[in-house]
Amino acid sequence: MNTSWFQKYPENGLIKRAYAFAEEAHKDVKRESGDPYITHSLSVAETVHKWGLDEASVAAALLHDVVEDTNFTLKNIDKQFGKEVAFLVDGLTKLKKIQYPEHDPNVETLRKFIISFSRDLRVVIIKLADRWHNMRTLKFLPEDRQKRIAWETSEIYAPLAYRLGMQRLSGELEDLAFPYFHPEEYLWLLDNVKDRYEERESYARKIKPIIRKNFERNGIKVIAIDSRAKRYSSLYKKLQRYDMDLDKIYDLVALRIVVKTIEDCYAALGVIHKLYPPLPGRIKDYIARPKPNGYQSLHTTVFALENIITEFQVRTAEMHEVDELGIAAHWAYEQIKNSKRHSEQWKGVLSRKELLWVEQLRNWQKSFSDKELIESIAVDFFKDRIFVITPQNDVIDLPAGATPVDFAYRIHSDVGNNCVGAKVNGKIVPLNYELQSGDIVEIMTQKTKKPSEDWLRFIKTSLARSQIKNAIKDKIKTLREKSAPAGVEFKIVNQDRPGFLKDVTAQFDESKINIGYLSSETDKRGAISAVTVRTAPLTKSKLEQILVKIKKIAGTKEVNYKFNR
Ligand code: MN
Fold this sequence. Notes:
By secondary structure, the protein is of the alpha+beta class. The protein has helices at 4-7, 14-25, 38-50, 55-63, 66-69, 74-81, 83-97, 107-118, 121-136, 143-163, 167-181, 183-217, 232-241, 262-275, 317-325, 327-337, 346-366, 371-377, 404-411, 413-417, 455-458, 462-471, 479-483, 500-510, 540-552, and strands at 222-229, 253-259, 284-285, 298-303, 309-316, 385-389, 395-399, 419-424, 427-429, 441-445, 487-494, 515-522, 528-535, 556-564. Belongs to the relA/spoT family.
């Protein structure tokens, strides 16, 4: 391992001390690869250093497994390295404890949770560096753990990296996970693509000097021309859309050109098009309209040398860096800008960074029209949603301001109805307590207990509201309930996707429940956001059965129901 980056830090400074501490804490422990454990910590720290994060982050990376895996505690870290490092290590320790239920359809919730729960983006970024190293050493693990870690990586961490704009890391994580996920497909690709990749690489080598010469002739300063072979994981996804026909993939090897300015980018595009005729409809201006994760570049596909169809990507050095580092790059810039205020109170630093993050997500969102991506970016991580944990480590997402009663009804209507008290992080709290992200919530129940009308004053979710109203319906009768025919009314809040409505009706059909009334609500964009279904009265088991089925439909966010009399 090249440790020159590390040697540059001063003796007895934070980084060197953290290293010595971690080395001592993990001594005698080996990785599955047989290497001393500290090699992992050092590698994660190196990545964090290279991404340009601050010293506290590098120190936290060195110490990230100490609390979870050794006898040292957070108090020890706090005492030795101060609050900021301890805060980061604490976040990483908590993230490590969370178990992600495999095959959970709601992976998006998990991704948001990680970000919200981490409180500070540096925790997420260090976690990604940790995951990257673990993926590179995955081959040493037993097969069942390989599969699980590859699943988490592909479903949670790679998309998370992508959302943070760390496109290159995201792709690498996908590629590292791919062979564990799709072993046969991977072998197929190796068999069929390897030669083509080599062919295309040598072709790229022929083109590069021609491009360079023409750019220089037109006064465009070239910083770099690289050829970039398409990743196996993304190639596979694309092949599935193109009948597995490799001849239809034009960006098997793309040429990536880095120039100085945005003007040069457009000028370069002009030169390329003068040299080689472009394929119509394949010019993409991600500079004027960046991707939601911040990616910027110009793309074009042309009939290049020997009439071979080739993709070019043109960008500035800064765009290139953002592509590789994403939010970490912005973060590093921000660091440099504010280095004078380095001694600033820790708390101020935290909120400033959060603001930066939210602001950036907003900017990305503004420049975009892709509906699904906008939804998935969820600009309001910190504002409108909280993520709490059940004693079984399941993650539950609730609106901000939600209370233990909202939580209880989310678990089960009986838990809500019989709720008598709640514990948060082991301490008893009042039922109107405002839950915070990361809280571990436990509900105490009593079979004979009935919900109280008072709860309606503080609960935040419509699910809790409708169920409390149901349970005390003798006291509260809404006009709607009076006029509606007897039976059950379901309200399904959903994420729009094609076929959602059809899947809902199919589930009722399958359960042999007749639908008496069906309507849907649309949002401003015309996407279906909620579906209402009324049926005849149902037995309790039928009701439970259909609720489970609805919850399993992809896109279902929330199901409420009430009884009409
Ligand atoms: Mn680790």
